[in-house]
Amino acid sequence: MVSLRALAPSLTRITVAGAVGAALHVGQGDCDLIDAKAVEFSRAVLKQSDIDGEVICCEGPKDHAPAFERREKVGTGDGPALEFVVDPVDGTTAASKGRKDAISALACAPKGCFQVLPDDGYYFKVATDYHSIGKLSLDMSTEEIVQTIAQSKNISIEKFTVIMLDRDRHSEILKTLRQMGVRIILIPDGDIAGAVVAVTPNSGVDLLIGAGAGPEATIAATAVKCLGGTMLVRVWNPNNDEARVERLKQAGVDVTKTYNENELAKGNELVFVASGVTKGELLDGVRLSRDSATVCSICMRLPSGTIEKSETTLRFKDHPVYKQFVNET
Predict the structure, then answer these.
(1) N or C: which end of the chain has fewer CB within 10 A?
(2) pTM over 0.85
(3) Is residue 66 a contact partner of residue 58, using CB atoms and an 8 Å limit?
(4) Selection from 40, 22, 30 nearest residue 90 by Cα
């Protein structure tokens, strides 16, 4: 039986495929087309993978976007029993508008390891590196969170950098950060990449903060855990939506609990993979030519903590997967 550790590098093929499918339609203004092609391409690769796999969650159904089915069986059925949380394109809107920071990403683990927060509204998230493990709480104010991390990393507020989604819902956080004088990177989409960058040593980014979707939290938590950092996630409900609270409770979510990376991604056998769709803070975007594509990817895994960055050049014409799409590309 092939182990997840041995299989990990080949999982990059899945996000590479999703990135290529999405990249073919960058800037065309059609979010559904980008999601549909990312799913189609990555599903084709998964179909050939020697795993007994199951996609337990895929970002997209909330917005009625093309996605893997919940509990969709993937792989040949021969190989290790694995579960996936998939975001075919984190940053679909950005990709549809030809903007930066879109990636294709997934988390993989043996079955039973992931807790996925429902794709129902938003969750407040912070992520940072190992210096602040055990020192943060989501009961802290924005100022306290920033000051705690800055002190732990021994850097001045003026050199402290926060990355966050550019959203109206973050206006008060943004106002506070600007009053503090920290550096701020606003990204149009893609808080998975934002979390990874914030936890990566010497990235120049110190903190991800803000509200985002649930499935992305589990994917990001997997990467954060592989990098040895910390992530905290809690239900974000500023409008006191009691109907949503009840739905989350029915789905098994503790609406008062702060989840950390070890609860969202359990165990010590985990893989995070991402491939760039458009150029961003984490990865370069897909470069297309007449009959090929070049894709930049990153793969992280536990227990080793190995981080692999790669550049893949695909030749479409005779490729066992991509040749079926040649006429469309």
Answers:
(1) N
(2) yes
(3) no
(4) 22
Give the separation between CA 329 and CA 323, rounded to whole angstroms.
10
Return the residue matching tokens 């980008």.
Answer: 34
Q: What percent of the chain has pLDDT over 90?
A: 82
The H or E element spanning position 45 is helix 31-47
The answer to whether the CB of 231 falls within 8 A of the CB of 260 is: yes
Domain ranges of the chain: 4-112+268-328, 122-264
User: 325 pLDDT exceeds 70?
Assistant: no
- Rg of the chain's alpha carbons, rounded to an integer? 19
Q: Which residues contact 318 (CB under 8 A, 6 or more apart)?
A: none
The rounded distance, in Å, linking the Cα atoms of 272 and 15 is 10
**CATH for 4-112+268-328, options being 3.30.540.10, 3.20.20.70, 3.20.20.140, 3.40.50.720:** 3.30.540.10
- Amino acid 320: pLDDT: 76
pLDDT surpassing 60 at residue 73: yes
Q: What CATH number labels 122-264? A: 3.40.190.90
Q: Are the C-beta atoms of residues 182 and 112 closer than 8 Å to each other?
A: no
Is the CB of residue 24 less than 8 Å from the CB of residue 290?
A: no
CA proximity to 62, closest of 219, 216, 264: 216
Q: How far apart are CA 264 and CA 107, in angstroms?
A: 11
The tokens for 300 are: 């992280």
Among 79, 4, 2, 20, which Cα is nearest to 48's? 79
Q: Please, which residues bridge with residue 188 across strands? A: none
Residue 249: both structure tokens together: 């409770």
Output the CA torsion sign for 41, 42, 46, 47. Answer: negative
